[in-house]
From TrEMBL, chains A, B:
The active site is at residue 103. Residues 75-140 form the Spo11/DNA topoisomerase VI subunit A N-terminal domain. One of its GO terms (biological process) is DNA topological change. This is Type 2 DNA topoisomerase 6 subunit A. Keywords: ATP-binding, DNA-binding, Isomerase, Magnesium, Metal-binding, Nucleotide-binding, Topoisomerase. The keyword Metal-binding applies. It comes from the Archaea. Homodimer. Heterotetramer of two Top6A and two Top6B chains. NCBIfam families: PRK04342.1-1. CDD domains: TOPRIM_TopoIIB_SPO (cd00223). It holds the Pfam family TOP6A-Spo11_Toprim. Residues 196-362 form the Topoisomerase 6 subunit A/Spo11 TOPRIM domain. Its cofactor is Mg(2+). It comes from Haloarcula pellucida.
Length: 368, 368
């Protein structure tokens, strides 16, 4: 197997940072101290909104894992075995999934180092991300599924383990588009003729935009979010914004769960607050479906369920939604008691979304 | 927008068959008869196993929709409006999703023709498939999501609405692979250097095989099933088998739900019995995870839940699983009370699946 991406600086940096962590335990032992590892407390109460960066980050509270107790010592032992595995994985330019790590631990020679559940190994990998300031992708840990796609006027180079591939995301792909790899930092953007990026929640709407040639007519890079977007999808969206200086617009269903999808693209999530700077695109704008669209375009709707209402009310308290715009929209939605899907726009004809809705709205937003 | 695929014979045939259905209503009116539509009864009791073709098909029982009653007349009215929409869609070389059809009906001028729920429009489209003997894909109805991928020594030509694309599913794609389009009958197989097709349930295992270069070493076309496979995935699997004369092997988790995934690739499902001949690959073989693997390789397991046990017991009664092999495996599994995931093979090391497990098993099965 080719190892073209071996010894790239990122891989080397990640490996060194991991080894440094283990070396710290070693030094603590050598100095006669009880080994410890200190990490930010990862609870909702220790999440802060960073006004400057516009993203969620961890607060100042920390907790310490110490080998003073048996359970603390076991945690550090597991960390050491995991660091050893990851360092070797990086050395050999391999990768693995979180689930494989969990199963693989069964082959470790010390039983106390083996994980009792996948939650335990997942949490440990997140701890290592936080402490080492290296992302899971740079450890070469893959998710179980990614699967989102890109279609638009963008030519890129992907560094695969079989060599480089240059792919134009309209001319060199089928109607399904370009499949985003698990680690999109293997991608280099070569050329583009794009005016903005449109992130789309559902596959049905993604296919509609592509069929109607919206990406060609408006020079749009269409990113399929596939519901709550995977890390790879959020990462490439951020890179498209930062590196190509393209506006990012998010297009979802009109319900509280979809507003959270927008929130996770724009601001990051509580679960991955340590990665907000790596994954979030604070400049991302929300195009719709907005509650005002339900009224203005008389869209087919479903009534809000109790859990929808609760979710909307909790969004009214959510720092990410403390703007005039969101307050108005959420209060309007609670008032009318209705939600609508992206594809409800089809009630005005299959071309309404690309001929009328998006052009009108994007021009109001100064995107086109 | 280009309309290269306009006027292909398939599109024309589909359009004519739809028009014929509507013409039948017209003739019934003209002769002074009450219009009716007769379709096979679509219940579990009217499903038969076709021994010759090795697939599920509908039995002889039929039910008749007649305009004698208001509700029957409304059903036929909806069918007529839908036929009109589909015929125009084919004429214009457009496509749409089932959900768009449901919403679009709100724009129809006669209120009684509009659908009350998406179940109603979905069922009607299936009825039209059965009566016209044309598949949904040939009506240009897309699913909401497809998203499975292919990686392997296969060069194909996809007819997109922007022209033809020639893609080699190893050399011209990134690590994510080639994205199967919604209607894989737009694909023509050009060249291949493949010895067999391996359909893989989970993304984690698909990525493992690709990382380990299994597709290159054994000349395998790796098809990612993504859990219960979409119609597009089953269709292309069948075409790879039929047209390229390649053995098809299915590799899933070792639990009753995964055996059903194998069953749907091999024999079709009850829900789409009218499509078994179009979607099913009766010659597909099951490689594992088998209950005997749990014992033989001492894999990490989870205990069977009550619903697992019920599902296994119902598979013992299922005509699709009436073979010596499946009886033995299912009885063994009920006996040991355990299930295992594909990735549990990682407990023997990350290369065990590609260096040992698959080569041993596939050679026993005479596939390699």
């Amino acid at each position: 197997m080719s190892t073209d991406s071996d010894d790239t600086p990122d891989t080397e940096v990640a490996r060194e940072k991991l080894i440094d962590l283990a070396a710290e335990f070693y030094d603590q032992f050598a100095e006669g101290d009880v080994p410890t590892m200190t990490i930010p407390t990862r609870t909702k109460s220790n999440i802060e909104y960073d006004e400057d960066k516009d993203v969620w980050v961890y607060g100042d509270r920390t907790s310490t894992r110490s080998a003073k107790t048996v359970s603390g010592a076991e945690k550090l032992l597991k960390a050491t075995y995991t660091i050893d595995f990851l360092a070797r994985q990086l050395d050999e330019d391999r990768s693995s999934t979180l689930r494989e790590l969990y199963y693989l631990s069964e082959s470790w020679d010390v039983e106390e180092a083996q994980f009792n559940s996948q939650d335990e190994s997942n949490d440990l990998v997140e701890d290592l991300e936080i402490v080492s300031d290296v992302t899971r992708e740079d450890f070469h840990m893959r998710p179980e599924e990614s699967g989102a796609t890109i279609m638009g006027p963008l030519k890129l180079r992907e560094q695969t383990r079989r060599g480089e591939r240059e792919i134009h995301c309209q001319k060199d792909v089928g109607e399904g588009g370009y499949q985003i790899p698990n680690n999109p930092d293997t991608i280099e953007f070569l050329e583009n003729d794009a005016d903005f990026v449109l992130c789309v929640e559902t596959g049905g709407m993604r296919d509609r935009l592509v069929e109607n040639g919206f990406d060609e007519e408006y020079n749009v890079i269409v990113v399929h979010l596939k519901g709550q977007p995977a890390r790879a999808t959020r990462r490439i969206t951020k890179r498209l914004h930062d590196e190509l200086d393209l506006p990012v617009v998010v297009f979802t269903d009109g319900d509280p769960w979809s507003y959270r999808i927008y929130g996770s693209v724009a601001y990051g999530s509580i679960k991955s607050a340590h990665l907000s700077e790596y994954l979030a695109t604070p400049a991302a704008q929300f195009v719709g479906i907005r509650p005002e669209d339900i009224v203005e375009y008389d869209l087919p709707t479903d009534p809000l369920s109790d859990s929808d209402i609760n979710a909307l009310e909790s969004e009214l308290e959510d720092p990410r939604f403390q703007t005039e715009f969101w307050k108005e929209q959420i209060e309007l939605q609670l008032d009318i008691g209705k939600k609508a899907e992206q594809q409800a726009l089809a009630s005005r004809g299959l071309d309404f979304v690309t001929d009328t809705y998006l052009p009108e709205r994007l021009s109001e937003m100064d995107v086109i």
